[in-house]
Specification:
The protein has 154 residues and is an alpha+beta fold. Helices cover 44% and strands 21% of the residues. It is built from five helices and six strands, in the order ααβββααββαβ. Strands 1, 2, 3 and 6 form a four-stranded antiparallel β-sheet that branches. Strands 4-5 form a two-stranded antiparallel sheet. A hairpin with a 2-residue loop joins strand 4 and strand 5. The longest helix is centred in the first third of the chain and has 25 residues.
């Protein structure tokens, strides 16, 4: 009769001890990393930082458009809200409202009923034109973005 082995032999015990030691050290290192601030920063989804703007609404503009024909009496009613970066630029935009409105009126009066709705990259070109004209007038990049908040043409 053969003797049944009830225990582990020495080579198996050594291999088991090495595996347990590796798992213990690796698990400890992984646990330490996962609880560190670096891991929290790494694991959080990176969200693009959204710029915070101050929004400055202007009252509506009512403009006679440039006629396409002799009988064309089209007019445009528009309202804008301007996005500015800080309170200083908001103050500039509010203090210079008369000049800004005059500049926008001059720009809109040159538009025809067809050219008001011109688009570039799915954006109305009038928004970009207003932004450029206002920033040129104020001599600085005061306006970051232009929003059309009301628009009716007849």
């Amino acid at each position: 009769m053969k003797k049944e082995k009830t225990g582990m032999n020495a080579p198996k015990m050594i291999i088991l001890g090495v595996v347990v030691a590796i798992l213990g050290v690796g698990g400890g290192a992984l646990g330490s990393y996962l609880t560190s601030d670096q891991a929290k920063t790494f694991m959080q989804p990176s969200e693009p930082e959204e710029k915070r703007y101050i929004k400055v609404p202007y009252s509506e503009f009512l403009i006679n458009l440039k006629p396409l024909t002799q009988n064309d009496k089209s007019f445009l009613r528009m309202a804008f809200t301007f996005a500015v970066a800080d309170e200083e630029k908001e103050t500039i935009l509010l203090e210079e409202e008369a000049k800004v409105r005059d500049t926008i009126i001059a720009l809109l009066r040159k538009k025809t009923s067809e050219s008001v709705f011109n688009e570039e990259n799915s954006n109305l070109t009038i928004k970009q034109e207003v932004e450029e004209q206002v920033n040129q007038l104020l001599g600085d990049s005061v306006v970051e973005e232009v929003f059309i908040t009301d628009m009716v043409m007849q």
